[in-house]
Amino acid sequence: xxxxxxxxxxxxxxxxxxxxxxxxxxxxxxxxxxxxxxxxxxxxxxxxxxxxxxxxxxxxxxxxxxxxxxxxxxxxxxxxxxxxxxxxxxxxxxxxxxxxxxxxxxxxxxxxxxxxxxxxxxxxxxxxxxxxxxxxxxxxxxxxxxxxxxxxxxxxxxxxxxxxxxxxxxxxxxxxxxxxxxxxxxxxxxxxxxxxxxxxxxxxxxxxxxxxxxxxxxxxxxxxxxxxxxxxxxxxxxxxxxxxxxxxxxxxxxxxxxxxxxxxxxxxxxxxxxxxxxxxxxxxxxxxxxxxxxxxxxxxxxxxxxxxxxxxxxxxxxxxxxxxxxxxxxxxxxxxxxxxxxxxxxxxxxxxxxxxxxxxxxxxxxxxxxxxxxxxxxxxxxxxxxxxxxxxxxxxxxxxxxxxxxxxxxxxxxxxxxxxxxxxxxxxxxxxxxxxxxxxxxxxxxxxxxxxxxxxxxxxxxxxxxxxxxxxxxxxxxxxxxxxxxxxxxxxxxxxxxxx
Amino acid sequence: xxxxxxxxxxxxxxxxxxxxxxxxxxxxxxxxxxxxxxxxxxxxxxxxxxxxxxxxxxxxxxxxxxxxxxxxxxxxxxxxxxxxxxxxxxxxxxxxxxxxxxxxxxxxxxxxxxxxxxxxxxxxxxxxxxxxxxxxxxxxxxxxxxxxxxxxxxxxxxxxxxxxxxxxxxxxxxxxxxxxxxxxxxxxxxxxxxxxxxxxxxxxxxxxxxxxxxxxxxxxxxxxxxxxxxxxxxxxxxxxxxxxxxxxxxxxxxxxxxxxxxxxxxxxxxxxxxxxxxxxxxxxxxxxxxxxxxxxxxxxxxxxxxxxxxxxxxxxxxxxxxxxxxxx
Lengths: 500, 328
Fold this sequence. Notes:
By secondary structure, chain A is α/β, with parallel strands linked by helices. Helix content of chain A is 33%, strand content 26%. In chain A, the strands form six sheets. In chain A, strands 15, 18, 21, 22, 23, 24 and 25 form a seven-stranded mixed β-sheet that branches. A six-stranded mixed β-sheet of chain A has the order 6-9-10-3-11-12, sandwiched between helices. A four-stranded antiparallel β-sheet of chain A has the order 2-1-4-5, covered by helices on one side.
């Protein structure tokens, strides 16, 4: 491809035993918006970090405008004309627009800054943002406008390649349109934009060409116009469910939990309704940020709800807005947090303290702890779940990831509630521990508990769950038996909110 | 299950105690007869009572990842309130009025503590700022009540609490020392063997985990700061007993000595670590150093330099221990 301004060929990168990229090619032309798509963990972020100079590739060649390109660090990349716009904005909120745009490149004489207001205004105008005043404080702007300020900064530094990582994930609709307009103008000026997104309808709207990554390999590339979305989804998913999942029947019984009209404080979740039966394992699929965690956290009283009701075992409905974690636990709900280290565990306390924290009533009399009983029960759970630890007194941060997750699960098991929300229960743990957790989830369902399982790994949801719902921008699809779903259909709802 | 004894963990618990034994032995070797005399030991213990009792309360607050900078002001407030109640018209220095004065002082501090906790949780302002503010406010109230001067009081039994030589000599130590010992046992048990104590650790170690596990974090924090205030109030009564007057300008900066005692005793300002026994040992280490330095005739500035070095050194040693543990 002679007209490519940026070429990546045969890029490889491994982190220890994990092969994040296995020979990826990417060709980007001047004046085009190039979509980079793929599932979570396909290697998009790694590739972009190599492009911007955060990582160095193990093998492969990069050329920028015909010259070899090997940035040693992000500053190097920026000097060569490659700018990244990250998901999390990196602006100084207390400074003005102009101060942020020129940060690191102030024109000064004897240490006194000479304003570059005219220049900043021109760049903002080029982006179609005449309305943003250079002396406005950045913290007073909407997220969307802040993002445009960051793009303006990239342009001030003479960026020729601009990489945007999920730029619309936190934007409101009109901000998204302003962003698309800015992208259009950059294209007219002959810049190349690499656009990373999960939302395929956006890709269709703004992108010229696309490249699909899957499991660290480039699967396909081509023109967006004329390529059906279904084809792109197929390329993104394209793998089979392997056999590490337990099979074994468990009957579905009476409804245990009935959720209606669940509305979060910030609009996510949006009007979520579902019914969970005894013995049911219900999966929730969806992209990061679709509102899966927020749904169960709101039900559990950790995030605040605007409205919604839940009824347990057919009893009268409770208002979700009044729910607290204590009340949720007392009503028979329990939650496994997706953030083991930030939320799931008190890391500098002992294993047994962590295990019993939600249920100290069982281990105390008149406010005094029964330490002997607590220790004996703790040791029993350590044995039952085969947690590898020196003793129950061992601090939680001294355990491996898989064992830490088992401690979190043991807390749910000893609490012995009937409705369990498991948020990413197998994230970041080894395959052996994963299989043990799948088996455990099945056993709990056989005991008549009802489980909601959230995961970003589709094969796991399809392998473990009885029923499945998909979330898109806060909304939950109809919950159907797993055989009625295909990966294709799931990805379609997850990326477009459209259910065929 | 076989329980392997964890010597490293044991060492970290008794580390401060070893430090205390070391400084005591050091001064005993340098100034043999005077330092180890029974009278001097009694003096050191009595000197540790006020900082010690306040440190019990501050231990709870620091273990919960909080801080209370208003402790010194609370102590001053207590001395003034005790004096004011004793001076009420119709008051007499029998059994009852001093008891009422004591209760009023302790109650006021409990209220200040609970108020701190309320502001911290209700308005989500960091404890450092809230208590920095209440440090000034409470000091101001103390001066207001005391009309900006010391408040003399009639003779009463409260002033006997801090005597070095108790009146029935078979008591061996003054009532203040015994009271501190009793409070030591109660607070240590509270922190280690009750649900309240366990929740204090959980909140300090990871507030999010505590919330996830159904701990009513906000309510617990108000209780913790209230308990801190209660113990501070008792320390304030001891301060009154020592001064025998109400003094709104007393105990300025004392909160820093108290926090230092907790930190030397193994408390971590990032929460989840600390013990009541450690805190009293920390207070004793500082008292021994001051007393021993005086005996040696070392100037005041030397003591300050040594105590400062010990505060930093204690934390440094503690961090090294953690690094060893996570590495091993």
